[in-house]
Amino acid sequence: SAVISQKPSRDICQRGTSLTIQCQVDSQVTMMFWYRQQPGQSLTLIATANQGSEATYESGFVIDKFPISRPNLTFSTLTVSNMSPEDSSIYLCSVEDPRGGAFGQGTRLTVV
Amino acid sequence: GNSVTQMEGPVTLSEEAFLTINCTYTATGYPSLFWYVQYPGEGLQLLLKATKADDKGSNKGFEATYRKETTSFHLEKGSVQVSDSAVYFCALSWGMNYGGSQGNLIFGKGTKLSVKP
To answer: A42 — contact with chain B (CB < 8 Å)?
Structure first.
């Protein structure tokens, strides 16, 4: 299955700032997904990113808060903008693969 | 809408006990079903999956059978070990074989399993 490298693995950020998370895949994939896992909660899909088009956001998530780039078939970034403590979560990227979805290790974000 | 419901945790068992974690789903059509596991401090890993009714997914001694009639995909293991302590997530997806779907996963809330020696 696809191997995904995600960075940073963790960060502590000041409120009001922004953090960009990178996701690199070892093979070309059509769709990449960004999820959020809030403390003690399940994973929630933020958006789906296709190469060369605007990301598709799920209800409750907006582009101004979570801008996504997808410049090529192996890379994507998610930015968490104007952060508040409520944004403290694990953010994960994922790709579709025949085994049923591969995930990065996640980025543990703490906003103080 | 489409959703996954799994039993609330935490679940605490003694080593070698039998494990069942219930999972039911609501979906249009026939999605693929998955169990993911998240060990302490680690990322999410696919444990097993089933893509059609009556399929049984299995891995590391864990099993789950896709039951269309009861819309369930319960996770079982005959004899748990301390190393099985983790959070288990049930999920569904229409994956790459369903033209109308983007292939994203819908997750249950997760069940934390603690196995005591």
So the answer is: yes
